[in-house]
Amino acid sequence: MAAPARRQTMVSHHHNHHIPHHHHRRVSLAALFVKDDTHRGPYIPSTLDLWATAVALAVGGQCLYWPAALGAGTASCALALAAMALAHTGLVYSVAEITSALPFHGGVFGHARCTLGFCPGFVIGCIDLVGHVLRLTLAQTTAGHLLTAAWPSLRPFEPLVWAALVALGAVGTGGGSRLFWRIHVTLVVVALTVVFFYCMGALTLASVVDYGGGTANLFVDRGAHAVTLFPHAAWMYAGLDAFPLLAPNIGGANPSRVLPPTHVSAMLTVLATSLCIFFVAISLPPGAMALPHTLTVLGGGIAASFNVSEHTATLVSLPAAVATVPVSTVAVTNVLAAMGSSRLVPSSSSWKRFVLGAFPSLGVASAVHFATLSPSFVLHLCLVTRFVAAMTHCLAFLHLRLYHRVLPRRRVSPWGAPGAIIALVVFGVATVSLLVCQDDNFVVLSTVAAVGLAATVYYHTVVKHCQVFSQAELQLLLTAHVVHRQIANKRTRRASGSIKQSLPTRRSSSSMSVKRSRKPGHSIHGMPPLPPLLSKTSWSSFSRLAAATTTTISGRITPQRVIQVKKSKTHEEHTKSGPELLTIIPPAKAGR
């Protein structure tokens, strides 16, 4: 017994002989810090943090971009805002229900992949990614314009403003740290405080008769520009649908429990602020007719209410413009991470994903700054990408309601399928307007077509032969399959019980059960019928392969066979197959 103790003492003394005393001190201090961080765990954002981040997605558009819709007239703009409010309300309710049932942090490409197919899902994911990058570009260029409007001498140094905003966006690469959430809370509280004082100033200065433009400005040119300028009203609410992308950044909280109620509360906040901003904006200087040509919405009213210069008043919109930067950066990195986990794009570290999102935005901002690109082109293209993402969310919600009603969900949309259909129609009309009704020589249409064509070619040449189901996708698909199997088993037991009572033998009962299961539109295992349009999607593919007892999914997708299924034999096979290898336990065994 003494020999092992002596040996341990000698080893300890040997190590102490080679390690200096100050190194012991550093190790002990580091251990203290590590222990403290481990005890704390990941930061779980509060309801205020989540609400402020969701509002930050839309507050920039409310203070900066929507007045272009006033070019069609005040009444025409009011109707456009009402239509967009209805559409975004139905959209947010739909996305909240999807998140409460099957939370997926990969954004819209995961929904498109499960409802429209693999190739359309990849194309829509690329378009969504372009939209988030363009949102970063808009924030960078707008912040530079606001600062140079207040101090014209800063015009040559405007690229430094973009670099500072890129550094601010780097906060989001930490994965949802306390600083990330506090930045959004601070910026959103400041922006909403400015909006509050802007609305309070209207109590003494508001006059729709003087600043509204009169009856001649209700419908400019008898509504000739209504369809052309209709999509710009979406800037009051654009970006709210991207809120579920923050699911990986909320620490240990359950996204299906935390995100949907916060999403809805942020939507109600944005609706209230949009209503106040619109009616105050057409009642204060510079007036409804001049507002489409100004840099900010709040500048004229703040200057008149607080007796400051208009150049100084433009700075009050700076927090609203900057608030979009960190959350948009997180959206870019999370979409790239999710697509990388499915091998749709090369997987990379968080900093590489940050660089992939930051540098293209800087490139587009430089092109706009040096007059290579028109700012309206960036605005229109960004809106098109948001509309495509919103329509995909609506289709995913309709698919969930039609074919996955049995899935449990914490929140149900009060508007149901009609709300999603209304949103689908409104966003479809707005997309057509941006693509074919603008006086831009179809540049936006050509750009969207080029992005879609390039993504399609890349998919069929590269992605199609190496894509997989990520672990997050498999978990969600397995959850859906298990629920469907449980419901199907209950229905089968009920049917077999009634057949046993009516038929004398068990053999005839089983034969009748087999005949019932082989009806057109039903699988052998009693699964609910699959829609013909979606029969080749990942939902049906997973349902077919998960009906096996204990199988292993390699996840590799080939043109001939969507997913290869092979029996698991040894531990070495599991090791060779990589992290995407997943052993599925059948529902019957899982229940035991």
UniProtKB/TrEMBL annotation:
Residues 1-24, 489-530, 567-592 are annotated as: Disordered. Keywords: Membrane, Transmembrane, Transmembrane helix. It comes from the Eukaryota. Residues 12-24 have a biased composition (Basic residues). The keyword Manganese does not apply. The chain crosses the membrane at residues 160-180, 187-209, 264-284, 291-309, 315-339, 351-371, 377-400, 412-436, 442-461. The keyword Magnesium does not apply. This is Aste57867_24036 protein. The gene is Aste57867_24036.
